[in-house]
Amino acid sequence: MFLQLKDSHNLVKIVDIQELLDPSSEIVHAKDQEGQEEQETDIYQKEELVFPSGEKLPRCWLDAHYRESVAA
Predict the structure, then answer these.
(1) Predicted TM-score (pTM) of this structure
(2) Which tens digit of pLDDT belongs to each residue from 57-67?
(3) Rounded to an integer, what distance in angstroms lies between the CA atom of residue 39 and that of residue 17?
(4) How many C-beta neighbours within 10 Å does residue 3 have?
(5) Which of 69, 65, 49 is closest to 57 using CA atoms?
(6) How is the beta sheet containing 27-32 ordered, strand by strand?
(7) Distances in Å between the alpha carbon of 69 and those of 3, 9, 38, 72?
């Protein structure tokens, strides 16, 4: 899966989808898609990422307590 960095608009390839979906994890391991060579895996904050369309990541991927604030 590819996501985009908010500030630079560079694409990154997510290494572990489960890590992305886990709301208790604030980071994700991904590879920058810069250049033609395969890049090294790096760590990115989930809050820095959006979908390539510019849409934000779902709240349930970012906030482990998202249901509690909705119910209140």
Answers:
(1) 0.83
(2) 999 999 988 77
(3) 18
(4) 21
(5) 49
(6) 41-45, 27-32, 11-14, 2-5, 49-50
(7) 27, 31, 41, 5
C-alpha angle with apex 22: 14 to 72, nearest 5 degrees? 135
Helix (H) or strand (E) holding 14: strand 11-14
Residue positions counted in the chain: 72
3-state helix, strand, coil in the chain (%, to 5): 25, 30, 45
Cα 11 to Cα 50: distance, rounded to the nearest angstrom = 10
Do 10 and 2 touch, CB atoms closer than 8 A? no
Give me 25's structure tokens.
Answer: 């994890």
Average pLDDT, the chain: 91
Tokens, residue 11: 């694409």
